[in-house]
């Protein structure tokens, strides 16, 4: 007998016997639900036999028989009522446990988030893809069959989504495209580092979403609940269904603030800030301006994260401001990185280390932030050095800049599109899904081993567009992605180390070395970051103008 836990109050199992009841009681259960009709299998005990055995050991038993593959709406309601009435925790069972897991999923649909239901059942080994529309519809069988349908559907209207739509429209102006995204505002997130350094205003980094959706592209202002790739369908909140011929998945990344105990309660106050949030980047600059002495901690969580250089960019710009004001000697800068290196592409590390020395910053590797007490100005880190037991250390601070842990969005992690780690599973060259050949992905959500930056999405969007157009013509992929990503490391006000690299850390500079040597700090790179990249983003990348982003063609060997 294998018991699979769904929630603290419910576990499910395949067929049990009367002899199992004592072990079920011993495991802490107080009731059982039988969801398998009597006589379904020749070797199956009757419910009466099981009920007598349950009573003998002090377990309550309920009989809710469901024919295989025919879970009705009223069955789910009955299961929910039984769960409420029976003493918990409860063990439900059928032939394999699938009916019991399905009944629980549908019974909880009105009160539990779809992604949480799918995550719980997936963790227990049960796939609810067959009833995902019913879960999204509050546990009821949908009656609306008036589905919208488009040639291309794009999930996510961030940098990657809008750029991909614009690139497709540039190639096939008549293409019927829909972008699905619930947000009203679109943000230029690379600018938030500059806001935190006192260079940009927050308003410089935002536009209304409606002003950026390419002309002729339909904007469906809704959140995605789930995917049905076998049916070429995207399920929206409220169980509306959007059908597609080809799908692009690029909803970005989830910032998991709640994963750090106490962080959410203190963000934006008590000296705790983050340039990873639009409304907090300004607070970073306020803290830097007001600080004259004390300890400033800058944190970086385990990879992957968007723009892996951003946590140290905040440190460098803050250190530079304190250096210019003459207070740096009284400020203790600590950079606490959950990883073991300062920067993944080693060619840029020597230049960065010069600034680490200039600001007298202490590098603490393998230090992962796990808890914060804002009012007490204390933080706790798990130190996990190789071949050493994990040790929890406490550090006091006067200011702390936090980079939050990051994961794929919940509706992606529990979907059929995800790999074992929760990211959209693509071929790293063509960006086409490995299982579903009419699905592509780009940006932070996919699993190619590249840096998650806006510059990466700028290169990926035309590659996806080229390959989708080739697919429409019946051909194979014609463009390939080399892993390009760019991280302009703002080491001081007026100078940047322009890191540009691809798969495996290969250097991929965009400019001649005489103009910008990316391995050294330069004013030309700062000019690029401050003056050129924002208009390139707004007026070129999001408009389908692929300046310095022409796709690399597939080479035939």
Automatic annotation (TrEMBL):
<keyword id="KW-0378">Hydrolase</keyword>
<dbReference type="InterPro" id="IPR036188">
    <property type="entry name" value="FAD/NAD-bd_sf"/>
</dbReference>
<dbReference type="GO" id="GO:0070221">
    <property type="term" value="P:sulfide oxidation, using sulfide:quinone oxidoreductase"/>
</dbReference>
<dbReference type="InterPro" id="IPR029021">
    <property type="entry name" value="Prot-tyrosine_phosphatase-like"/>
</dbReference>
<dbReference type="InterPro" id="IPR023753">
    <property type="entry name" value="FAD/NAD-binding_dom"/>
</dbReference>
<keyword id="KW-0874">Quinone</keyword>
<dbReference type="GO" id="GO:0071949">
    <property type="term" value="F:FAD binding"/>
</dbReference>
<dbReference type="GO" id="GO:0016787">
    <property type="term" value="F:hydrolase activity"/>
</dbReference>
<dbReference type="GO" id="GO:0048038">
    <property type="term" value="F:quinone binding"/>
</dbReference>
<keyword id="KW-0285">Flavoprotein</keyword>
<keyword id="KW-0274">FAD</keyword>
<keyword id="KW-0809">Transit peptide</keyword>
<protein>
    <submittedName>
        <fullName>Beta-lactamase hydrolase-like protein</fullName>
        <ecNumber>3.-.-.-</ecNumber>
    </submittedName>
</protein>
<dbReference type="InterPro" id="IPR005939">
    <property type="entry name" value="BLH_phosphatase-like"/>
</dbReference>
<feature type="domain" description="FAD/NAD(P)-binding">
    <location>
        <begin position="151"/>
        <end position="263"/>
    </location>
</feature>
<dbReference type="Pfam" id="PF07992">
    <property type="entry name" value="Pyr_redox_2"/>
</dbReference>
<feature type="domain" description="Beta-lactamase hydrolase-like protein phosphatase-like">
    <location>
        <begin position="3"/>
        <end position="110"/>
    </location>
</feature>
<dbReference type="InterPro" id="IPR015904">
    <property type="entry name" value="Sulphide_quinone_reductase"/>
</dbReference>
<dbReference type="Pfam" id="PF04273">
    <property type="entry name" value="BLH_phosphatase"/>
</dbReference>
<dbReference type="GO" id="GO:0070224">
    <property type="term" value="F:sulfide:quinone oxidoreductase activity"/>
</dbReference>
<keyword id="KW-0560">Oxidoreductase</keyword>
């Amino acid at each position: 007998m294998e018991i699979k836990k769904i929630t603290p109050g419910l576990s499910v199992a395949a067929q049990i016997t009367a002899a199992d009841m004592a072990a079920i009681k011993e495991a802490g259960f107080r009731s059982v639900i039988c969801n398998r009709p009597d006589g379904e299998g020749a070797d199956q005990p009757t419910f009466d036999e099981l009920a007598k055995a349950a009573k003998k050991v002090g377990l309550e038993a309920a009989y809710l028989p469901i024919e295989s593959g025919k879970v009705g709406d009223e069955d789910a309601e009955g299961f929910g009522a039984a769960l409420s009435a029976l003493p918990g925790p409860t063990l439900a069972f059928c032939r394999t446990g699938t009916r019991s897991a399905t009944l629980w999923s549908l019974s909880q649909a009105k009160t539990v988030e779809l992604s949480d239901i799918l995550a719980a059942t997936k963790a227990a080994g049960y796939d609810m893809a067959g009833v995902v529309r019913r879960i999204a519809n509050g546990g009821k069988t949908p009656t609306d069959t008036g589905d919208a349908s488009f040639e291309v559907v794009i999930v996510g209207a961030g940098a990657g989504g809008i750029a991909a739509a614009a690139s497709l429209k540039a190639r096939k102006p008549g293409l019927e495209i829909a972008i699905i995204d619930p947000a009203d505002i679109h943000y230029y997130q690379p600018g938030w580092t500059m806001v935190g350094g006192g260079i940009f205003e927050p308003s410089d980094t935002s536009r209304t979403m409606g002003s950026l959706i390419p002309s002729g592209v339909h904007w469906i202002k809704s959140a995605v609940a789930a995917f049905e790739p076998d049916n070429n369908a995207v399920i929206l909140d409220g169980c509306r269904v959007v059908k597609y011929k080809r799908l692009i998945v690029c909803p970005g990344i989830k910032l998991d603030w709640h994963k750090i105990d106490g962080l959410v309660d203190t963000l934006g106050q008590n000296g705790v800030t983050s340039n990873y949030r639009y409304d907090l980047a300004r607070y970073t600059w306020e803290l830097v301006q007001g600080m004259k002495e004390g300890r400033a901690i800058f944190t970086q969580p385990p990879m992957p994260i968007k723009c892996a250089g951003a946590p140290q960019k905040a440190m460098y710009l803050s250190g530079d401001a304190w250096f210019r004001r003459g207070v740096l000697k009284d400020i203790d800068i600590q950079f606490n990185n959950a990883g073991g290196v300062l920067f993944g592409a080693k060619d840029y590390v020597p230049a960065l280390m010069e600034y680490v020395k200039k600001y007298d910053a202490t590098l603490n590797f393998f230090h992962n932030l796990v808890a914060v007490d804002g009012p007490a100005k204390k933080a706790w880190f798990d130190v996990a050095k190789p071949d050493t037991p994990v040790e929890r250390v406490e550090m006091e601070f006067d200011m702390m800049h936090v980079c939050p842990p990051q994961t794929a969005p919940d509706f992606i992690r529990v979907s059929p599109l995800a790999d074992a780690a929760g990211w959209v599973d693509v071929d790293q060259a063509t960006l086409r899904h490995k299982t579903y050949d009419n699905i592509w992905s780009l940006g932070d959500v996919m699993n190619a081993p590249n840096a998650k930056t806006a510059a990466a999405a700028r290169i990926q969007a035309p590659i996806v567009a080229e390959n989708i157009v080739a697919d429409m013509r019946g051909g194979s992929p014609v463009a390939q992605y080399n892993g390009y990503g760019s991280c302009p490391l703002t080491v001081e006000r007026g100078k940047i180390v322009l890191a540009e690299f691809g798969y495996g850390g290969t250097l991929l500079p965009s400019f001649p070395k005489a103009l910008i040597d990316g391995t050294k700090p330069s004013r030309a790179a700062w000019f690029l970051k401050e003056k050129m990249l924002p208009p390139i983003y707004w007026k070129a990348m999001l408009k389908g103008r692929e300046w310095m982003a022409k796709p690399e063609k597939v080479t035939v060997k």
